[in-house]
Amino acid sequence: MASFAGLSSVKFTMPPNRFYWARRLPAEGAAIFEPNDIEVVRVSTVFGATPEFWTVTVMGSDEHFDLAAFEFFHKAPRRLQT
What we know:
Blueprint: E1 2-5, E2 11-14, E3 19-24, E4 38-44, E5 55-58, E6 64-65, E7 70-75
Antiparallel strand pairs: 1-2, 3-4, 3-7, 4-5, 5-6
């Protein structure tokens, strides 16, 4: 499990293969600022079971992102976890 701080700066431990509310952080040095709305993401273990291999997938996309590219807030409600 890995710990991340959310809006309230309260750390929580997040297990993988679950859905979370998160916001994409602005990329350093990027010329274009991407929208940073809060979205539902999944912490994936497709590249390995240990936290250093975990990635983030955005719903509706097959792209994988680094955990550090997102600010995590809270686990998504159970009904979204299909």
